[in-house]
Design goal:
By secondary structure, this protein is α/β, with parallel strands linked by helices. Helix content is about 35%, strand content about 15%. It has a seven-stranded parallel beta sheet with strand order 3-2-1-6-4-7-5, with helices on both faces. Helix 2 links the parallel strand 1 and strand 2. The protein starts with 8 loop residues before the first helix and ends with a helix. One of its GO terms (biological process) is methylation.
């Protein structure tokens, strides 16, 4: 009878990432209207897992929130947004990025129908209370709905962002 052999952390690391990912090359998670820091650190871990970067507005409490959630022993790919997020989104689109929002709209596509990202893609995330405001919705190329069968209206930013990042990265 052959047993299952667990791989060592070093073996797993070599298989998953033979070389480091390049910041800003492919996927960027952008929780642009954060309210709760606990979710930002968790989302940062998911960004590392799929080779994505995190773009966040510069707020006094955000660095501490990211530090608490980043349980990895190396720096992660975080880029700070200074100024208005609508202007930042305009610059991303102007540079050729696809802008994908995680939001319930009449035009939203289901997560299962979202294709793997083929070009640089910014994943725009609102907050648990009010979602993506109008200034963000106006700039989306596509909105994605995460189907739910439970009684809740939405998932938290970290969970929703992680699901969409994995799908866009082609890892599920």
């Amino acid at each position: 009878m052959s047993g299952v052999r667990a791989r060592t952390p070093a073996e797993i690391h070599r298989q998953r990432r033979p070389r480091g990912h390049g910041c800003w090359n492919h996927l960027i998670a952008a929780p642009l209207w954060p309210k709760h820091g606990v979710n930002l650190g968790t989302l940062l871990r998911s960004c590392d897992a799929v080779g994505a970067c995190l773009a966040v507005p510069r707020r006094p409490w955000v660095p501490e929130a990211l530090a608490q959630g980043n349980t990895l022993r190396h720096p992660s790919c975080v880029h700070w947004i200074d100024g208005r997020v609508d202007r930042w989104l305009d610059r991303q689109r102007g540079g050729g990025s696809a802008i994908v929002g995680v939001e319930l709209t009449d035009e939203s596509i289901r997560l299962g129908d979202l294709p793997t990202a083929r070009r640089r893609t910014v994943v725009v995330l609102g907050n648990e209370g009010s979602g993506i405001p109008a200034e963000g919705l106006d700039r989306l190329d596509v909105a994605v709905e995460i189907p739910m069968v439970g009684s809740g209206h939405s998932l938290n930013v970290a969970v929703a962002g992680s699901l969409v990042l994995y799908k866009l990265a082609g890892l599920c």
